[in-house]
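Researcher: Let's walk through a ligand-bound prediction step by step. First, I give you the protein sequence. Second, the SMILES string for pyridoxal-5'-phosphate. Third, you return the three-dimensional complex as structure tokens. Ready?
Model: Ready.
Researcher: Here are steps one and two:
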Amino acid sequence: MNRIVDLRSDTITQPTPAMRQAMATAVVGDDVFGDDPTVQELEARVAEVLGKEAALFVPSGTMANQLAVRVHTQPGDEILVEAQAHLYYYEAGAPAALSGVTCRCLNGTRGLFTAADLEAALRPADVHFPPTRLVCLENTHNRGGGKIWPLPQVAEVAGAARQHDLRLHLDGARLWNASVASGVAEREYAALFDTVAVCFSKGLGAPVGSALAGPLELMQRARRFRKQFGGGMRQVGILAAGAWHALEHHRARLAEDHRHAQRLALALAELPGVELDPATVETNIVRFQVRRQPAAAVAEELRAQGIWLLATGPDTLRAVTNLDVSADDLEWAIGGFRRVLHA
Ligand SMILES: *Cc1c(COP(=O)(O)O)cnc(C)c1O
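Model: Step three, the predicted complex:
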């Protein structure tokens, strides 16, 4: 078989044998009736890790984010979100479609913005303007190249939001990566937000699943909207067991993905026509520009060599290290990058 190293995303991982075993033997029940003990255990554990009252297991990160938007707002409200944020950029227009809200975008730097940016976007109470309700942050920031929000900057933005009575939501699909890389615990970040979304199917390597965490009253409302959005699931403890396994066994190892990303970045930065500052690679996402050919053409040539990655813009490529890419895979892939980009 031809060798393939898949760097398209950290979502492409296969469940490990131990994870499949945990899933196969999970005790399950009908979770819409509240009967699935494995889901309940996972929700309690997620709430504990994030230091929140309650959590809700959901099929996708998109649903976790959109449930948050739904519980914090009413139709006609405005939410503030960074222009490249997943919640706005990659969720198929869901804030408008599912919650009837408008998004007002802040232009960040690699996904991060400041309290001053937030203040500048706020408008006075006036019948002409939609009421602003919610501010959303993303940590790590996907399109920002896995950029970590420093805790003091989050605190500053959160402080400004609180002064204006705004709610705060964190898209923490890769909060695990931010914590492992920065040493700031998930709960320290989470404490600054009303609600937090996390994913088990990104770097943690579970096949399916995300969670939303926050105050009990909000999570009870979110449970009703989850049903309305079509996310009420039955014997879903099978999936929750995979998520549990991922949470308990695959968090610390994210450091390995980060080392691999750094190694890849240093190797790519030396290649002709590649624009990449390895210092910008903080977690498991390596974004770089190519100057000699369109990104899509480079991606196609790499694919022919067994190296799979995504063109995320006309001249931008993205490689994401993950659970299924070993140190040996990475060295092999670096050889392929050299062949293609030197040619
Ligand atoms: C992947 C991702 C999500 C959720 O994506 P789903 O595919 O819906 O699970 C949310 N936020 C960020 C930042 C992501 O990278």
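Researcher: And what stands out?
Model: The pocket of pyridoxal-5'-phosphate is lined by residues 60-62, 65, 86, 138, 142, 171, 173, 199, 202, 210 (CB under 6 Å). The mean pLDDT is 97.
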